[in-house]
Amino acid sequence: MSLDLVPLMPAFGAEVRDLDLAADQPESVIDELKRALNQYSVLILRDQRLSEARHVELSRAFGPLMVHVLKQFLTTPYPEIYVLSNVAEDGKPIGNHKEGWNWHSDLSYVAEPSMGSLLHALEVPPEGADTLFASMHAAYEALPEETKERIRPLSAVHSYATYYAKAFPDREPLDETQRAKTPDIVHPIVRTHPETGRPSLYVGQDIVKEIVGLPFDESERLLAELNRHAIRSDFVYRHKWQANDLVIWDNRCTMHCATPYDDNRYRRVMHRTTVSGDRPF
Ligand code: OGA
Ligand code: MN
User: Fold this and answer.
1) Which atom of ligand 1 is nearest to the CA of 106?
2) Atom of ligand 1 nearest to the CA of 274
3) Which of 181, 215, 250, 265 lies 20 to 30 Å (CA to CA) from residue 279?
C-alpha cells in the first residue's frame, strides 16, 4: 500500500488523500506517514473524525507526547491534548485564545523541543483563522552562501517568558512554577534534521530573544533579517481549515503562524497533541 499524496507547494507540504485515521491502521501506514512527513514537512488530511482518545493514540505512534505547561487549557479528559479556542464554558476558557499568532515552531523554548504536532479542527470559523506554514529547509537553502556561512556557527536564546509577555500582555504573568519549567534555552540558528540530515533555519518571532555573542543591535538586525526571510511567500503555505481537518507538521523544519478571525462572531475549537523531540544540533 502506498499513500495517495498530492503536493501543496513546490518546496513542501502534501495532502494525504483517501486515508481514514479514525480507523486502526497497520504499522506500515504509520511508517509511510512518517516518511511522508520527513519528505514534505506538513501533511494535510481532510475529514478525519477522530475521537479525543484516537487523536492521542494516533499521535503516540509518532513518539511520546508532551504535556503543556498551561494546565488550565488541558480541558479534555486527556492531558496530552492542548486546546486552542476562543470558547468559554461556565465563564472559563476551554482553550488558549490567540495562541500561536506569531511565527514559531512548537515548544522551541524547551531544551528538547517538539518533533511534530498534530492539530485537529473541531469547530472553525467560516472565514479567517487560516494557519500559515513555512518551510525552514527552503528558507535556509535560499539564503546567500555568505549568510549561510555567517550564521552556521551561531546560537540564539529562546524564551517562553518573553513570548508570553508579548503575546498575552493583558494576562497575569507566568507563575513561579511555570517559569521554573520554562527557563531560557539556547539553540543553534541552523539545525540539522535528525532523520534526513537536511539543514534548516531555526528562528522565530517573539520567542527568540537574542543571538549569543553578538552586540544587541547586531543581534536584533540579524534576527529581524532572518525572520523576514524565513516567511518569504514562496516558502509559505496557507491552510484554510474545514472542520475535521488534521494537520501534521514537523516542528524541526517548519514554522507556523495563526491568523485573526472575528472572535466575537465565530467559535473556533482546535485540539493539539505535541510529540517529543531531541535536542537540536
Ligand atoms: C498550534 C498553533 C495555530 C492556529 O496549534 O501550535 O500554533 O492557527 N496553532 O491555531
Ligand atoms: Mn504552534
Assistant:
1) 6
2) 6
3) 215
Ligand 1 site, CB within 6 A = 84, 99-100, 106, 117, 119, 131, 256, 258, 270, 272
pLDDT in tens, 86-142: 999 999 999 999 999 999 999 999 999 999 999 999 999 999 999 999 999 999 999
pTM of the shown model = 0.97
- The CATH number linked to 226 is 3.60.130.10
What does the pLDDT read at residue 151?
A: 98
Is residue 131 assigned to a domain?
yes
Q: Is residue 270 part of a domain?
A: yes
Annotation marks residue 106 as catalytic: yes
Phi/psi at 160 (5° precision):
-65, -40
pLDDT at position 1 is 62
- Say which ligand is closest to the CA of 272: 1
- CA-nearest residue for atom 9, ligand 1, is 100
DSSP 65: B
Query: Model confidence over 185-224: pLDDT tens digits?
Result: 999 999 999 999 999 999 999 999 999 999 999 999 999 9
- Is 256 among the residues known to form the active site? yes
The reported pLDDT for the residue numbered 114 is 98
Average pLDDT in the chain: 97
Number of structural domains (the chain) is: 1
Query: Does 64 score more than 70 pLDDT?
Result: yes
Does the residue 280 lie in any domain?
no
DSSP calls for 88-153:
EETTEESSBTTTT-SSB-TTTTSSS--SEEEEEEEE--SSS--EEEEEHHHHHHTS-HHHHHHHTT
Give 89 Cα–ligand 1 centroid separation in angstroms. Answer: 21
Residue 107 lies in a domain: yes
Gap from CA of 28 to ligand 2 centroid (Å):
28
Domain carrying residue 167: 4-275
Rg of the Cα atoms in the chain:
18
